[in-house]
Specification:
The protein is mainly β and 140 residues long. It has one domain: Metal Binding Protein, Guanine Nucleotide Exchange Factor, Chain A (Beta Complex). Helix content is 5%, strand content 37%. It contains one helix and eleven strands, in the order βββαββββββββ. The strands form two sheets. It has an eight-stranded mixed beta sheet with strand order 6-7-8-9-4-3-10-11. It has a three-stranded antiparallel beta sheet with strand order 1-2-5, with no helix packed on it.
């Protein structure tokens, strides 16, 4: 079974589609996600990279994760909306920013990451599995 997710940036210059089954819905409270989202956490859907397509010009920001992976964030150079990211630690996956979904109702949170770093005013979803850091990707 697959789920088609479509979305894009605020101004419409960037559009994307993911035609595969989502891997996991995650809420991340790490300091990096808080800064790029401009709030207490980021809401992300991890999808297979092989099923992901994007159109439109993108700008990037590259950095090293706490675990040492090379990370890249992609955003619209026109409106600045965060669109997606990926990292060398799991190159088979793309991390979509749920705020850009055409139908954000397809998102289901399964995990909350970096919960000790959550701001005191930010609620941690009690219905998710909680992790103190990033768990390693599942091995098939």
């Amino acid at each position: 079974m697959s789920t088609t997710i479509t979305g894009g940036c605020q101004c419409g210059a960037v559009r994307y589609e993911s035609a595969g089954e989502p891997i996991v819905g995650a809420i991340c409270h790490c300091d990096n996600c808080k800064k790029f989202s401009g709030t207490g956490h980021a809401v992300n859907m991890v999808v297979p990279a092989e099923d992901f397509t994007v159109t439109g010009a993108l700008s990037t920001y590259s950095y090293k994760s706490e675990a040492g992976s090379d990370m890249v964030r992609y955003f619209c150079p026109v409106c600045g909306s965060p669109v997606y990211g990926h990292g060398s630690g799991n190159p088979a996956a793309v991390v979509l920013r749920v705020g850009g979904f055409d139908d954000p109702g397809v998102f289901e949170a399964r995990v909350s990451l970096f919960t000790p770093l959550a701001a005191p005013w930010d609620m941690i979803d009690a219905g998710t599995a909680h992790f103190d850091a990033m768990p390693p990707p599942k091995k098939e």
